[in-house]
Amino acid sequence: MIVKARLITGVVLFVFVLGHLINHALGVHSLAAMEAGREWFTAAWRNPIGTTALAGSLLIHLLLAGWALYARRSLKMSVGEAFQLVLGFSIPIFLALHFAGTAGAHRIFGTNDTYAFVLLAQWKFADYGVILQTGGMTAAWVHGCIGVYFWLRLKPYFPDIKQLLFGLAIVIPVASWIGFYAGGKEALALYEDPEWRRAMLAEAQPPDANGVRQIYDLALLFQIIIGSLIASALAGRGVRSSLERRRGTYLLRYPNERTVRNARGTSILEASRLNGIPHASVCGGRGRCSTCRVRVLEGHDNLAGPSADELRVLKRVGAPPKVRLACQALPFGDISVVPLLPPNATARDAKRRNPDMSGQEKEIAILFADLRSFTQFSEQKLPYDVVFVLNRYFAHMGEAVELAGGHLDKFIGDGVMALFGANTDGDSGARAALTAAKHMSQKLSVLNTQLGDELNEPLRIGIGIHSGPAIIGEMGYGTAFGLTAIGDSVNTASRLEAMTKEFGAQLVFSEDVASKAGLDVSGLTHKTAAIRGREEPISIYVCEDAEKLSLHS
Predict the structure, then answer these.
(1) What residues contact residue 323 under an 8 Å CB cut-off, 6+ apart?
(2) pLDDT digit string, tens, across residues 114-153
(3) Domain of 301: which CATH number?
(4) What is the pTM of this model?
């Protein structure tokens, strides 16, 4: 609820700032254009609905900012988080006089705060008016842009619009500064005309000297309130910390045997920050990105159950049991955890990496497929032709795997490795792997027809499938990082694929696969084969043409 409130109020305030900057930018054309834009701007915001939305959003956003500062157990944060926090609290300080001199003067004294009047007040009459206005609007814009970035960078479409947004983030304030400067210079020049000056003052109806003092007092009061809010949040943190220490502490253990003691009420992420332990957190601990997630090794019963917001994020990323968001998990007893992402994880890593694949042993089916005599083919063809044929082959095989519900692990030379049952169970995985083999055979026939003119002889394939326990998880480095499996079952599947050459068959699979899939094996050749690396031989079935495989039990 708090996250949504911050987001909604932040969007309202950002839209207001955006409109204000665009209005400033009209000064590039003329002061008259700025005034025409102001009429539309004030019409949108100086009505019961607009005023309520703006004032309410400002108040709620400030209170939530104070609450966020109070709720932090540690003031250690990323540079981006710290910058946004400082900018957020500096905005009212910078713009207090501007708020009081425009909206405040309009409400209290009936002043018509035209662009000409406000620009002259800042450029000619107010001390440091230009600096305060420019600094305040810049702070507001940068603060809003950081917030938008933190929000959008987790969205799948953000990479497509990132460059456009970054461009606008620069162009809009620069155009605003230029317009503000041009408008101010035009207003100063016009001020030299006595008749224009009298007409401007008559239209603006500025407050008298006593009213000006009231405006300055109002601005000061606003600054004092903001300062008090910050001071109260910081003081509250100290009081809360003292009370929590009295309620007890808990021990938090990390994989490197490092153990730290923390007060109850301190989240796992906050504990890491307090103790200088690097811990990923792209969203700053707001429970949105999932990069701080941990697997609870011991002491899961010493955690309160996840909130609805945490459950939603965990469900979105497919988290298995005993995986929690470190920023939301509040231990009340000793606990042992292992972070699932490296400390330098990015928003891209959060989207790409499936926490369900963080490392576990699971019954799956593994399929290996390899082209026969492709080396000879590649020696007879130009490199372009080889790459063309391989890419067509990979596309067809990949489609076959995905159509069956499998995970395409990797292409190895002209070979394919695929996993089945990683998100289901061993029985479903075995049946899906056999289905994929049938689809691969069918698609290879189609491919041979399509490439008839390119091939001296049809492409042939050998497929091996085995089912059993394997360690699955995301492994690798950099761009070569992805879901894969290791273990004896993987090696066995690879050996079965190699046996297709020995038997002159298209498909060889283990009896375990047939049993789990409930396959009718009548008509298939049954053999016992010794597998290198295994002490005991295994029972296998040989299928000359996988396309003719009957999947009806």
Answers:
(1) 293, 294, 295, 296, 314, 340, 355, 358
(2) 888 888 888 888 777 788 888 888 889 999 898 888 888 7
(3) 3.10.20.30
(4) 0.58
